[in-house]
Amino acid sequence: MACYFLSGDKLVKIRKNVGFCKYGTTTKTPAATKTYIINRPSFYLWQLHSKANNSTLVQNESSLRIAIQKGGRLSEKTLALLENIGLEFDSYKNRILVPCRNYDVELLLIRDDDIPEYVQDGICELGFVGRNVTAENKAAVTSLRGLGFGKCRLSVAVPKNGGYKSLKDLEGCRIATSYPVLTRDHFEKQGISIDTIEISGAVEIAPTLNVADAISDIVSTGGTLKTNGLVELETILESEAELIQTNRAIAPHKKELIQKFLMRIGARQQAEKSRYIMMNAPSGAVGEICRIIPSLKSPTVLPLAENDMVAIHSVIPTHRFWEVMEDLKTAGASGIVILPIENMIV
Ligand code: PRT
Ligand code: ZN
Fold first, then answer.
1. Residue 346 within any structural domain of the chain
2. What average pLDDT does range 309-314 have in this prediction?
3. 279 with 336: CB under 8 angstroms?
C-alpha cells in the first residue's frame, strides 16, 4: 500500500512501501531537520497544526473515511448533503481531516483532482467528486450514485466563425484542454488525430491567443463559451457529482456504515424529488382529485369540521406540481399547500 505525507495543503504520494519523508522539503513545514521513516504498509497522514510548527501523526483505522473537495464548486453542496442526512462536524477551517461528532466517519478535505486516486488506493473508502474527474483519472473505483448537483459536460468548442462544422474538421488541429486523456480518447475513437495542449485554467481564452484552434472544456450554462466567441461542437462526457467507492477490500464494520450512509442519502434524494401536498375539497370531489394527484400511494382523506368537506394529503413528485395544480382547482380543491420534505424512507 502507498504512503502519503503532507506538503503544504497537499497530500503527496510516496510511491514506495519503504521510504523517507523529509519534512524540510515541504513548504509549510519545520526546518530540514526531521526525517520520518515510513516503513509500514499502512496509511500515515501527517497533519500540520497551524503556526505551532509541530506535526502530529493522525491514524484512525476504524472510522469510515470520505474524501470531499476542500474548497470549490462541489464543497458547499456536498457539506449540505452530509448535514442534511444528520452528520455533524466540527469546524472545517484549516483542517484536512474532520471527524464527525455523531457518526463513525471522518472527512478528508482535499483538491478534487486527488479524490479518485485516494479512493482507488483505499485511503478513503468513499469520495464525492465530479464524474469528469474520475473519468479523466481513469480511476478504478465504483460509482455508487449520481448526486444531482455539479451538473456539467465536457465539450469540444470552436470559434464561432472558424468554419468548423464537425469534429472531422479538427483533423491536425491543436485542442487546448485540462482533460487531455478524455479528449484524446474521444478523438482517437473517431480516427481524428489532434494535438492536445494541456492548460490548467482559463482554457476558453486559448483560441483568441492563438495558443490553440479549439478547446475541450467543462460547460455548464454555456456563458463562458459565449463570452469568448466559442460554440459547442460535440459533447464528450455528461457529468455530475457522484459518490464513488473504493474497489479495495473494505472491513465488515465499514461496509455496514456505508450501507447506512447510502440509505440516508437515498432518503434525502427521494425527499428532494418529492413535495407534501395538502388541500381542502368537497367530499364529492375526492374521486376526481385522487385521480389527478400523481401519487404512487393512495392519498390520506380526513374529514373537516365543515360539513361535506375533507382535507386531502399526499406526496407528489416536485416537478409534477405545476402541471396538476390548475386541474386540482378546477376539480374543486382549495387552500392548496405544498411543503418540502426533509427525509423520506419509502
Ligand atoms: O481546487 P480544486 O482542484 O479542488 O477545484 P477545481 O478548480 O479543479 O474545480 P471546481 O471547483 O471549479 O469544479 C469542481 C467540479 O464542479 C468540476 O470537476 C465539475 O465536475 C463541476 N462543475 C460544474 C464545473 C462547472 N459546473 C463549471 N461550470 N466545473 C467547472 N466549471 C467551469 C468551467 O471549467 C468553465 O471555466 O465553469 C466555466 C464554464 O461555466 P459556464 O456556466 O459559463 O458554462
Ligand atoms: Zn481540480
1. no
2. 96
3. yes
Is the pLDDT at 43 greater than 50? The verdict is no
**Are 3 and 79 members of one domain?**
no
Q: Which of 189, 223, 239 is the last residue of a domain?
A: 239
Query: 115 in helix, strand or coil?
Result: helix
Asked whether the predicted pLDDT for residue 40 surpasses 60, the reply is no
Q: What is the rounded distance in angstroms from the CA atom of residue 197 to the CA atom of residue 180?
A: 8
Q: At residue 56, does pLDDT exceed 60?
A: no
**∠ CA(261), CA(91), CA(246), 5° rounding?**
35
Based on the domain organization, do 195 and 297 belong to the same domain?
no
Ligand 1 pocket mutation pick from 118, 152, 199 by most atoms within 8 angstroms of CB: 152
The residue range of the domain holding 29 is 1-59
The residue out of 231, 253, 272 marking a domain boundary is: 272
From the CA of 132, give the closest atom in ligand 1. 20
Atom of ligand 1 nearest to the CA of 178: 34
Judge if the beta carbon of residue 152 lies within 6 A of ligand 1: yes
- Domain with residue 321: its CATH number is 3.30.70.120
Pair 137, 171 in one domain: no
Provide the 10 A C-beta neighbour count for residue 25: 13
**Distance of alpha carbon 74 from alpha carbon 85, whole angstroms:** 17
- Tell me what the pLDDT averaged over the chain comes to: 86
Q: Which of 10, 70, 129, 220 to probe ligand 1 with, by most ligand atoms within 8 A of CB?
A: 220
